[in-house]
């Protein structure tokens, strides 16, 4: 086959869906569906039904354009084997790479803290409401849970990765089944709340960080982009655009169906109670529903989702902190890794004991850093890096993505004021 014919064949292949594409679409989807989804209905529904409709409409394009841009950023490296870290260093130099690495660590590390709080509250709620026991002292319960989860990561990393990967699809199935199960409980109480049109934009603005957090699948984008480049070469852009688009549509359909089903089955007052109790929506449903399937399965699913998310983010945070320390010291690798481990475990334990608002932590710590890397960095590169010129998205896409990224970051300031 001539080079021209090979190029035509590759173009034709890259424009059609294959089983390989579908499996990658599921992988991107599975990476995003985690513990964040369990807190999304509480915040997304807090502003009422109509702001939730607007959030549902912007969730898919917001997610797709951001992840499409990040995939193109990885593809812009001159080295086909480069991951996102290598590409950052290639485009922005060593200093730029250090800044991005630092930002990436602070995008992951707060999520570990969030899940330390989340797992403690989930187990405490289960023991009190479903088992009928008195609350275990928070310092003891959180310490045992965090130490156990961390021990599983350290001493059984490969097994844990396999287990968490296998847990994604049962979790998705159970959440879908729960969404359908709640349909008979749907009521109009949320739709009867008259929106305050003067605060409508701010309600959307303040909810964007949680959308960013809940739909985020950037950790897998680097390996995903490398794989498409290996198979499709210069035509990988069309394929990454297609697959990230499919994953975004799946996420919007599944996650927003779950959110709408939960929100429509509850009242605004109930969502406020769930927020005040600082528990996931599944734990709240378990405490208020008499059906055994929800009472017992809800907390177990929440436990599984938070645990699996903790494993992945703990590994990322540990590797990121170890890398940052190693770049500024000549200490032995083993010592650096132990220091990083102790820092993350101890701070996670302290925060779990303190029990700050989980939604507040997502909005103020997790989402803004994710938005900086996922939404703003690729757009900045499209404007400033020559190698990104041919990977530019449309002007409208760039503006929309930048606005969403800035909104996710500035909402922290607005919320504080």
From TrEMBL:
The keyword Flavoprotein does not apply. The chain crosses the membrane at residues 22-42, 48-66, 99-119, 139-156, 163-183, 203-221, 242-266, 293-315, 336-353, 365-383, 395-416. The keyword Cell membrane applies. This is Serine transporter. The gene is sdaC_1. Signal peptide: none annotated. It comes from Vibrio marisflavi CECT 7928. Its main location: membrane. It is found in: Cell inner membrane. The lineage of its organism: Bacteria, Pseudomonadati, Pseudomonadota, Gammaproteobacteria, Vibrionales. It is a multi-pass membrane protein. Keywords: Cell inner membrane, Cell membrane, Membrane, Transmembrane, Transmembrane helix, Transport.
């Amino acid at each position: 086959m001539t080079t021209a014919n090979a190029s035509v064949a590759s173009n034709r292949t890259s424009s059609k869906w294959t089983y390989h594409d579908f499996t990658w679409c599921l992988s991107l989807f599975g990476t995003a569906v985690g513990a964040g989804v369990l807190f999304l209905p509480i915040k997304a529904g807090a502003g009422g039904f109509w702001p939730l409709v607007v959030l549902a409409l912007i969730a898919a394009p917001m997610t797709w354009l951001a992840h499409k841009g990040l995939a193109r950023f990885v593809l812009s490296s001159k080295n086909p084997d480069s991951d996102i870290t290598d590409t950052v260093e290639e485009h922005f130099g060593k200093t730029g790479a250090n800044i991005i690495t630092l930002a990436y660590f602070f995008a992951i590390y707060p999520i570990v803290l969030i899940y330390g709080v989340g797992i403690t509250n989930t187990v405490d709620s289960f023991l009190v409401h479903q088992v009928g026991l008195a609350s275990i002292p928070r310092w003891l319960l959180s310490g045992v849970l965090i130490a156990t989860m961390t021990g599983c990561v350290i001493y059984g990393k490969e097994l844990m990765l396999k287990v968490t990967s296998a847990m994604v699809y049962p979790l998705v199935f159970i959440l879908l089944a729960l969404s359908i199960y709640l349909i008979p409980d749907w009521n109009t109480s949320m739709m009867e709340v008259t929106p305050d049109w003067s605060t409508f934009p701010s309600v959307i603005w303040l909810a964007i960080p949680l959308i960013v957090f809940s739909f985020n699948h950037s950790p897998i984008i680097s390996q995903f982009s490398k794989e498409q480049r290996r198979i499709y070469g210069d035509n990988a852009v069309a394929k990454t655009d297609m697959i990230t688009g499919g994953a975004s549509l799946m996420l919007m359909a599944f996650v927003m169906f779950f959110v709408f089903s939960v929100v429509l089955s509850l009242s605004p007052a109930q969502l406020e109670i769930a927020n005040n109790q600082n528990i996931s929506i599944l734990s709240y449903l378990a405490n208020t529903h008499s059906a055994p399937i929800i009472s017992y399965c809800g907390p177990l699913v929440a436990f599984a989702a938070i645990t699996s998310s903790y494993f992945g983010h703990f590994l990322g945070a540990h590797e990121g902190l170890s890398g940052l320390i190693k770049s500024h010291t000549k200490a032995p690798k083993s010592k650096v890794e132990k220091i990083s481990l102790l820092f993350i475990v101890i701070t996670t334990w302290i925060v779990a004991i303190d029990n700050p608002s989980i939604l507040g932590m997502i909005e103020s710590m997790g989402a803004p850093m994710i938005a900086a890397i996922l939404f703003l960095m690729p757009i900045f590169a499209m404007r400033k890096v020559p190698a990104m010129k041919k990977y530019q998205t449309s002007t409208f896409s760039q503006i929309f993505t930048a606005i969403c990224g800035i909104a996710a970051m500035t909402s922290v300031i607005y919320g504080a004021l």
